[in-house]
Amino acid sequence: MTPGGLGIVEGVLIPALIALGDAPAGPVALGVLTWRLFEFWIPIPLSGLTYLSLRALPRPPPNDQHRSHHEGEAS
């Protein structure tokens, strides 16, 4: 098992697309690898930047009204 079918999807999809159509191998391989790059690898650095931005931004203070509202309810 590979994460997200890494390597397996490319190894099956490129020959399948070449066999099913009249496209040359070069453009098919470039298209599949470009698609996998954007679909699989680009989210990793983007999510890292998103995480760092959440850690760097100041957080608002906790809302005490919300807590006191629930404490006053009957159990």
Q: How is this structure best described in words?
A:
It is built from four helices and no strands. The relative contact order is 0.08. The model has no long low-confidence stretch (mean pLDDT 82). By secondary structure, the chain is mainly α. The protein has a domain at 1-51. It is rod-shaped. The protein has helices spanning 8-20, 25-41, 43-56, 64-71.
> For the CA atoms, what is the radius of gyration?
24 Å
Beta-strand segment tally: 0
Q: How much helicity do the residues have?
A: 55-70%
Strand content: under 5%
Q: Helical element count? A: 4
Q: Let me know the largest β-sheet.
A: none
Helix vs. strand class: mainly alpha
Distance between the terminal alpha carbons, to the nearest Å? Answer: 49 Å
Helix-strand topology string:
HHHH
Average pLDDT confidence is 82
Q: Which regions are unreliable across 5 or more consecutive residues at pLDDT < 50?
A: none
Shape by Cα distribution: rod-shaped
Primary descriptors:
single chain; mainly alpha; 75 residues; rod-shaped; 4 helices
Give the SSE map.
Layout: H1 8-20, H2 25-41, H3 43-56, H4 64-71
Short description, anyone?
The chain is mostly helical and 75 residues long. It contains four helices and no strands.
